[in-house]
Amino acid sequence: MADPSNAGNDLSPAQQDALVQYTQVTNQDVEAAIPLLERSEWNVQIAITKFFDGETADPVAEARAAQNAPVSSVRFENLQESPLHSSSRRPREAGPAPAPRIVPQRDTIHRPPFLLTLLFTPFSIGYRVAAVGFRLALYLFSFLPRSLQPRFLTNTVSGFWSTSGRRMLLPRDTASRFKREFEEEYGPNDLPWFDGGFAQAQDLAKKELKFLLFVLVSPEHDDTESFTRETLLSPQVTSFINDPNNGIILWGGNVLDSEAYQVSTEYNCTKFPFSGLVCLTPKQGSTRMGTIKRLVGTIPPSKYVSELRSAMEKYSAELIAVKSERAARDAARNIRTEQDSAYERSLAQDRERARRRREEAAEAAEAERRAAQEAEESARKAELREKWRAWRAGRIEAEPEAGTKGAVRIALKLPERAGGQRIVRRFRGEAPMEELYAFAEVHDLVSSQEPEVGGQEPEGYVHEYDFAIASVMPRRVFEASGEAMRDVIGSSGNLIVEDLE
């Protein structure tokens, strides 16, 4: 469906709202909807009614024209100029009669005001009690022989208990009941009865550009059974209706049902059985449904089929033209839809690529920021580490002299990154193992006697050793703990420094 905003830019906001409501209900093109709404004075309900029922003469316009027409004060009539005679000589309106769209309405129950109900409550109760008693008396008299029953009671009983009413159902249920009763009466058949109401069948015929053949029967009519058995159920008529090339939608109704009775009233059916053929009549209006054929009474099957075929051939060309126009319009709409979809897909791809570029740029910026932060943190840690090494080098205990009682002699082999040399040194026996780790860490500063040795311990810095000291045979790793060296290593030891990385 086309966008109303593009086709009616010069419309007022109220007219655009009416156009949107109308196109949403009827699914009609905007180019054809705007003229119809203008003819309906932009009344959405009137326009929708004209779309489904066809456009007829406007009663308001006719009343205004009749009011403005000059009226003669004296009128002379004779037999030739009488209204009845003149109407018969008037040329008939060109084209088929419009086919009204019948929607069955349930009977509404009008309740009296509460005060009247309250006032007539005693009479209502009395009437119900009398009715129950009368029915009971009729029921008891019904067991007596007919000769002993009073005449007025016999007539009353027969008239009282007889009923010819049929419960009003929904259109689909009414169609199912008609089909079931038809099969019970005439047996199984191949007639494709439409499972729905008359309005739904007419809408389907308009949408799919088919012919709607509706059949109205009256069980009380003498010609109903002969028409059904000899004409409607004949192989010639059945095959003609079932032929998909003819495009016929068959709807049937019993005039005892409310919907079928309304259809017979609207289509002026005075004799049964009645058959009517309805289709779209583009020449009379782009949305008008017209009755193109009326068949009444008993008709031979060959004539029945020929009458229907001749009427259908007369309007088949118009329906084919409308179908081609709709196909072209649908094809153009599909092309526009595909183009819009392709544009939306391309736009979505562009958006996705732009989003990915933004994400990649953000990730690169975040990685660069983290790298700079890590480099800054590494530099800060390296600076603090060097300060700590300088401070710790100034706090290394002096080597005890040879022969000092309780001293521990340690031969320590440094890793390759520190030169790989082997150092022999004495430590106090009570010195903690952490002192040995600190000596291995700052040996280069202690041996070189750098002037940077000393200073204060950096605040908030916790030094972590990146090596371990272990014995060779047997292998044992010593922790940088506060235990005394003599208790852990003994009087002497041959140790190596191993990098943890």
Automatic annotation (TrEMBL):
One of its GO terms (molecular function) is ubiquitin binding. GO terms for cellular component: endoplasmic reticulum. InterPro entries: Thioredoxin-like_sf, UAS, UBA-like_sf, Ubiquitin-like_domsf, UBX_dom, UBX_domain-protein. Keywords: Coiled coil. It comes from the Eukaryota. Residues 400-499 form the UBX domain. The keyword Disulfide bond does not apply. GO terms for biological process: ERAD pathway. Residues 177-309 form the UAS domain. It holds the Pfam family UBX. SUPFAM superfamilies: Thioredoxin-like, UBA-like, Ubiquitin-like. The keyword Coiled coil applies. Residues 80-105, 340-379 are annotated as: Disordered. This is Related to UBX3 UBX (Ubiquitin regulatory X) domain-containing protein. It comes from Cephalotrichum gorgonifer.
